[in-house]
Amino acid sequence: MSATEYTVHGAVAVIQFNNPPVNSLSHAVRSEIFAALEKAAADAAVRAIIITGTDKAFSAGVDIKEMGTPKGTAHPTLGDMMGQLDGIKKPVIAAMSGFAVGGGPILGLACHYRIAAKGTRISFPEIDIGRVASPGTQLLPRLVGVDNTVDILIGGKVIPLDKAKTTGLVDEIIDGPLVPGAIKFAEGLLAAGKGVRRTRDLPVPASDGKTFNDRKFPRGMTVGNIILDCINAASTMPYEEGMQYAHHKSREFVQTVESKALRYVSAAERTAAKVPDVPADTPKRAIKTAAVLGAGTMGGGITMCFASAGIPVTLIEANQEALDRGLATIKRNYMATASKGRLTQADVDKRMGLITPTLDRNAAATVDIIVEAVFEDLDVKCEVFKALDAIAKPGAILASNTSGLDIDKMAAMTKRPQDVIGAHFFAPANVMRLLEVVRGAKTAADVIATTMDLGKRLGKVSVLSRVCDGFICNRMMKPVRLQANVMLDEGASPKQIDDAMYAYGMAMGPFRTSDGSGIDVSWRGRLSRKKQGLPFAPDPVADALCEQGRFGWKVGKGWYRYEADGRGGYSRTALQDPEVDALIAAHRKSLGVTPRDISEAEIVERYMFALADEGAKILEEDVAIRASDIDVTYLTGRGFPVHKGGPMFYADTVGLKNVVAAIERFQKGYQGQLWQPSKLLLKLAAEGKSFQDYDAKK
Ligand code: NAD
Asked: How far is the CA of 469 from the centre of ligand 1 (A)?
């Protein structure tokens, strides 16, 4: 229920709206403010007007529930209110507090003055939700200049309040109760004879255009350039014309797949936190201290996550040398961030001060959560869990960072399987946004709730998976790798496949990725499985490369070759190598395959549909809760281009019927038996449904 209060204090009218929880500008609220503004404008005793929200929120902008409904576009729209404010002959002041997001501060921009309570968090994050913030592109440059506008609208981040003041976005910061401060500010204006100051009438200060030229956006993503184009229009066109241009661009963009994908991803990230059988009010265990076991690549990064979030963390190693090396890497990483100006020396010292290195496992006895990041070997992990069970205090969460081993087997080594969970971070753990939380068969609801919430505290997106080989993210990689090899056998070169996926928007194609992480890792895995008589997927060309010592970038040759960089390492530039071509050609010959041309479109289809099909199997087996969780996993864990929405969203945009038709085509081709489409995918396609329809039923 909204409630807008209208009060008059001397010559100042105060319009205070309150629409919990985020003070959205719903149709009801807009109507109430509109009516109150009319009343204040008509009252001769009122000489200045204040619009304000609540302590918690000035406003989070339009009501998302009303988007796409008649109420969303019913009079008075935000645009109507802006027109009304333009016509009022008394100064109108936006008095902001709490958070002011998107449409909220846009209403503020249309007011004649803006003041903010200490701690107000103003942001224009429209870019993240596939929108252009068209009024912002025209009004902000007039207040803060073109360069700051670019930072604000492209960055989408909260604007530090002192910066809002120095740039002219807000006129005053109020220390103390907001409404009395705002009334005082209004009285000051009146006393000084200052009246209406419409933002639209202010000139746009000249800019050298450097901010425009310096901007780089993810490949294939257009929203950034559209926003820049609209900001540029503010400098080159009269206000009305610029605003019309920006509205037109905005309306056009909202219809694009890119805009839909960005909105989808933004909603998907929020939805991922919801676990149907773990209600939001599930009590969480307190996590005040942590321990990390293993100071290697992952343990070091995970330790940084805790320290950066202000959580004291004990870093436990099996040997002194590894501990020293791990700690030195952590320090080097923090110092590198500091050298870029993103941390102060005091921040670095504080974070390092929160880390206690030790060789003594018993130091984990008092902490609230222990994350093990020791070698990826089930026997080693099981031994560690058995030991932790004897050491950890009752109620402590015992988490494993395994990339895909069976959490239930580890839990079975303890007398408290309910406290055991997977907390799968991605490398580099201090950078990558994904935390794949893996619930075992016996993991308690409060342990799930606490670990999901911990991810958020560590600045990550938590996605819940059940136990299966590779969980969601790594499992998805396997069929893709297989298809890459099939295409190699059939006639495509590693470069052709990598180039097609790069052009699609992936940071790197599968062969360059394999070179980067080391081809020998999976080769050793295959050798070890072979020795143990366990099943494994053969990879003959990769085996041949490894047998020749071509382990990848780290040794200067793998699927590609890399020139020495003169510093003992290798350049990142991947060069095609005739030796590899010859090896692939010999392999094709041994298979009796006559190479054929494979188009870029087919490469992308095979790659993407292999992902979507595996995703459907993951859903079918209930490993992931929703298709959108799979997309979030792939976007945040594998660097999938955000403006493409993720592999499941992509399959939806192609149409699942078309996906199935393509898979049926592939089934008839070389190695067609590898395509065994999921029952769920076939069912949805037959019913003319999408993965988003499937999610809607969850
Ligand atoms: P790593 O070899 O770099 O580090 C492992 C560390 O654990 C070593 O320093 C070792 O001395 C230490 N260690 C071994 N046994 C120990 C014990 N009993 N007690 C204390 N320390 C012990 O390995 P990593 O790449 O950091 O991988 C660690 C875990 O993280 C594995 O389960 C791996 O699958 C998983 N993981 C790795 C990545 C990655 O890209 N490297 C990504 C996600 C998850």
From this structure: 18
The pLDDT assigned to 30 comes to 97
Q: Atom of ligand 1 at shortest distance to CA of 404?
A: 34
Q: Give distance in angstroms: CA of 646 to centre of ligand 1.
A: 29
Q: List the alpha helices (DSSP H) in 9-68.
A: 27-42
CB of 517 closer than 6 A to ligand 1? no
**Angle at alpha carbon of residue 420, lines to 419 and 422, rounded to 5°:** 140
Condensed to tens digits (0 to 9), the pLDDT of residues 442-482 reads 999 999 999 999 999 999 999 999 999 999 999 998 999 99
Q: Which CATH class is domain 492-592?
A: mainly alpha
What is the Å distance from ligand 1's center to 396 Cα? 21
Q: Is 385 in the pocket of ligand 1 (CB under 6 A)?
A: no
Q: One fold for both 290-467 and 597-698?
A: no
Q: Which amino acid, residue 529?
A: R
Q: Does the Cβ of 376 fall within 6 Å of ligand 1?
A: yes
Q: What is the pLDDT of residue 1?
A: 53
Calculate mean pLDDT across residues 235-247.
Answer: 97
Is residue 417 a contact partner of residue 411, using CB atoms and an 8 Å limit? yes
pLDDT in tens, 369-426: 999 999 988 999 999 999 999 999 999 999 999 998 999 999 999 999 999 999 999 9
pLDDT for residue 67 is more than 90: no
* Closest C-alpha to ligand 1, atom 36: 403
> Which of these CATH numbers, 3.30.460.10, 3.90.1150.10, 1.10.1040.50, 3.40.50.300, describes 597-698?
1.10.1040.50
Please state the domain extents for the chain.
Answer: 4-255, 290-467, 492-592, 597-698
Look at residue 206 in the predicted model and tell me its pLDDT.
87
The alpha carbon of 375 and the centre of ligand 1 are apart by a number of angstroms equal to: 4
CATH no., domain 290-467 = 3.40.50.720
- Supply the pLDDT for residue 522: 86
pTM summary value: 0.91
| Residue linked to tokens 């004879």 | 193
DSSP class per residue in 349-360: HHHHHTEEEES-
| Phi-psi category of residue 533: left, alpha or beta, with phi > 0 → left and psi -120 to 50 → alpha | left
214: pLDDT strictly greater than 80: no
Q: Which fold has domain 4-255?
A: 2-enoyl-CoA Hydratase; Chain A, domain 1 (3.90.226)
Helix H or strand E segment including 501: helix 494-504
Name the residue with the closest Cα to ligand 1, atom 31.
376
CA distance 153 to 534: 54
Tell me the per-residue pLDDT of 20-56, one tens digit each, with 9 for 90 and over.
999 999 999 999 999 999 999 999 999 999 999 999 9
Q: Whose Cα sits closest to atom 29 in ligand 1?
A: 373
